[in-house]
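PT: before anyone asks, these are the final sequences, not the draft ones from last week. 518 residues across everything. Please model them as a single complex and drop the result in this thread when it's through.
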Amino acid sequence: MKNSAQVVIIGGGVNGCLLAYHLAKSGLDVVLLEENYLASGATGRSQAGIRQNLIPLFATKQNIKLAKRSVEIFEQLGDRFDRDVEFTQHGSLLLAHNQAEKNLFRQVMARQREQGIQSTWVTNHQIADEIAPCLDVDKAETLGGLYCPSDAQVNPFKLTHTYAEFANREGALIYTGTKAISIEVDHQKVIGVNTSKGRIQAEKVVVAGGAKTRKLAKTAGVTLPTFPERHEIAITEPLAPFLDPIVFSPHHWTIFGQTERGGVIGGWSGVAKKASDYNQEADAKILSAYSRYLALFIPNLRKVNILRFWSGLFDIPIDFTPIVGETWIKNLFVNCGFAGHGITYAPALGELLTELITTGSTSNQDIMDSLSPKRFRSPKKYVEQTLWRFMDRIPDTTWEKMRSPLGKLMLRWGHLISKLM
Amino acid sequence: MVNKDQEVTICYCEDISKKEIIEAIEKGYTTIESLKRQLRVGMGPCQGRNCLNEISKELGRKMGKQPQELKFPRVRLPLVPVPVMVWEKIFTTKDKR
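LR: through. Structure below.
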């Protein structure tokens, strides 16, 4: 194995491979380390939706901006690489089940429209007639939904493999089966990475390890306030195309969509558990609950077989904003905290991070400042910022509706933050 | 020259021939996991029970290893396809957070 590189990227998911490609293309000498095989972590375990239809908790202006930029990049991916990554743009549908959610989603729509995303509010009739005739909207008691036609799905393995292949062509070296154990720091500056196959000297280190980023960053003395959460999804046997958009019902915590291959992939995250031990064992009880909701939304799926179910880890940052940029250790960059939106943000963040690593500044400084891990540097600043973001994000109407599941989620996080204080 | 032998279908679930598998190995997908991700072999209803032996033999031959030295992918539950209507009734715990 090579023993020195200009940039060492840790993590062979979509974010790591994408970054390896961009950095290698800009002429740097790049090494990528992956513990298992490419896309073995959250990337490969995800449903791989690219949604600009973020739930209100995540739908800040900048997150929507990032998602929009990503969709633009994904749209041109086919021309750029001449590879089929099964990118299908069938839209996504965010279902509302009560008035409070309806109000919240309409606010999301207003923010999307500000950024130029052509999302529309659709009624039950429109859903039943045009958008997803297979959905049983009456039984599921929906009040319409937010429909974003440009949302898409992709094959996460092919996407990662494509970026890895082209990164390789640009000269990046990819070592799979090589675990990064710790990051070496000298005088607040990165000097190298210890791996299971020896030491690599590095000028710059980027950690894009999903939920495990926090573990590695800790070895360099950087404490990131994120925690892993286990979510489970299942896939059915392939069916003829019948469901275009990805359907997400935050009320029932259920999301599902049909892949290009034909399987209905989705999951229920009503009892997503904190997985501090990084345990990725799937629990059949969750599949059982998911099946009930799937059958509620699409009764015809009752007789369809479920082939497999598995779980993956979300990396949830305390303020629900990705953590991307240089840490307070010089030349140590992190790219994590996506809370299940890793593929959605990957291309947009890859672009910005490449600019930051190669030139030291970016064209979009506002976004990079708000995503920077430096926001967690001092505890006081961190608590202030978190609370401010939190208050800012919850519309007044919701405070009254804390009984709704959305409100419950917010309450749960609120509890967590108060604990930290 | 294409060997007639290579036209043989190895993965029936996803319709993948021996030739496609050899091509993928030559492209650099040299673990069963990465072959599975790229070609979907072992991701169908049989979960690799029909094809993984053949694939491991082929990969072992290419890599100069015994098939049993290769790392096999994890088998995911359910072991056989189970309909949604059965899952619905298996656990009826409360779905609340």
